[in-house]
Write a structure and sequence with these properties.
- This is ABC transporter related protein.
- InterPro entries: AAA+_ATPase, ABC_transporter-like_ATP-bd, ABC_transporter-like_CS, P-loop_NTPase.
- Belongs to the ABC transporter superfamily.
- 33% of the residues lie in helices and 27% in strands.
- β9 and β10 form a beta hairpin.
- The C terminus is likely disordered.
- The strands form three sheets. Strands 6-7-8-3-9-10 form a six-stranded mixed sheet, with helices on both faces. The protein has a five-stranded antiparallel sheet with strand order 5-4-1-2-15.
- It is an alpha/beta fold and 362 residues long.
- It starts with 8 loop residues before the first strand and ends in an 8-residue tail after the last helix.
- α6 packs parallel to α7.
- It has two domains: 242 residues, Rossmann fold, CATH 3.40.50.300; 63 residues, Alpha-Beta Plaits.
Length: 362
């Protein structure tokens, strides 16, 4: 039951853990995750590949059951109380499918009938995602960005309070990314809560109010974008003689800094103070011809926090034994459960049965 304790949070998890078993051993997808997503605005859910973002989203939607820990949506514990809150949630996990020969309007009308949403909502959601002028075009003629906006429209048919998008800009060109970004920001400006997982940090920075950064299934930073950028370490651009570039990179990386070449210079992330770089390189006989402090951005903060993280969770027992024998391959990837938002092309009945593009996990 929702209580006053959880007022102000759209999503809240404590100690959430999920492991996967296979013939290779046990892989940890999420390890003790504590997550807090405030009501209203866009919340970016960021992390390296294999850090547990999609697994977390699937647990929130009732598609995967956690091993332990608790998760709440609007104060309702999930999955136990999911039926009480699922009508307030819309989600896109992977790519929802629609009838390619049908128009966007006909696809949405079929889905609205299947989930019990009024047909008047079709006009409203097409307007919200700026597809009203193309609503009678066949789905197969849509660009990738338009297809993704149609998927967002499908999640809006029940007018949910919380929208969860897992990598919504994957595969889109810059124009498509901008369209989806503007749509998500517009929904948040209407008072909805938007949780978006993404690896395109520059895009998230442009629209997010708050973010959570995870690595190896654990939360490592969270807060407003402004506070993270203000508290994060700096980045600097340095120039040295070409003969000294390799020595400078080795020295900086040995000290735990992230170094990347850029147009004949070195960009150094995670710097506590620009003078620190000067002193560190000077002690090794490398002298700078240029040092330029760079404005902090979400990417530099992210790289500084996750520089020592590797994809995937920890592996146990059988995998460790194989590693000791020297014949282990990479950790197994997590199995893929049912996909929310993938049933429309199989028919409206399937859309209800598997919790399709309207985002409901039933």
């Amino acid at each position: 039951m929702a209580t006053a304790e959880h007022v102000g949070l759209a999503i809240e998890t404590h100690g959430l853990r999920k492991t996967y078993r296979s013939v290779r051993g046990r892989s940890v997808g999420v390890e003790g995750l504590d997550l807090a997503v405030p009501v209203g605005g866009v919340h970016g859910f960021l992390g390296p590949n294999g850090s547990g973002k999609t697994t977390t989203i699937r647990m929130l939607l009732g598609l995967v059951r956690p091993d332990r820990g608790t998760a709440r949506i609007f104060g309702h514990e999930v999955p136990r109380e999911l039926p009480a809150v699922v009508g307030r949630v819309g989600a896109i996990v992977e790519s929802p499918k629609f009838f390619p020969a049908f128009s966007a309007r006909r696809n949405l009308t079929l889905l609205a009938d299947a989930i019990g949403a009024p047909r008047a909502r079709v006009d409203a959601v097409l307007e919200e995602v700026a597809l009203a002028g193309r609503d009678r075009d066949r789905y197969r003629t849509y660009s990738l960005g338009m297809k993704q906006r149609l998927a967002i429209a499908a999640t809006l048919l029940k007018d949910p309070d919380l929208l969860i998008f897992d990598e919504p800009t994957n595969g889109l060109d810059p124009a498509g990314i901008r369209e989806v970004r503007q749509t998500m920001r517009g929904l948040a400006d209407q008072g909805k809560t938007v949780l978006v997982s993404s690896h395109i940090l520059a895009e998230v920075e442009q629209i997010a109010d708050t973010v959570s950064i995870v690595a190896r299934g654990r939360l490592i930073a969270s807060g407003s974008v402004a506070s993270l950028l203000g508290e994060g370490k700096r980045s600097v651009r340095v120039r040295v003689r070409p003969d000294d570039a390799k020595l400078a990179t080795t020295a900086l990386e040995a000290d735990g800094l992230v170094v990347r070449p850029e147009q004949g210079a070195l960009v150094v992330d995670g710097v506590p103070d620009p003078a620190y770089v000067t002193r560190l390189l000077g002690e090794r006989g490398v002298w700078l011809s240029e040092l330029t402090p760079l404005q902090a951005d979400l990417e530099s903060v992210f790289l500084g926090l996750t520089q020592h993280e590797t994809p995937g969770g920890r592996t146990h027992r059988g995998e460790r034994r194989r590693r000791r024998r020297g014949d282990a391959g990479p950790p197994p990837s997590a199995p893929v459960p049912a996909v929310v938002g993938a049933g429309a092309a199989a028919g409206a009945d399937d859309a209800v049965r598997d919790g399709s593009a309207d985002g409901g996990a039933r």
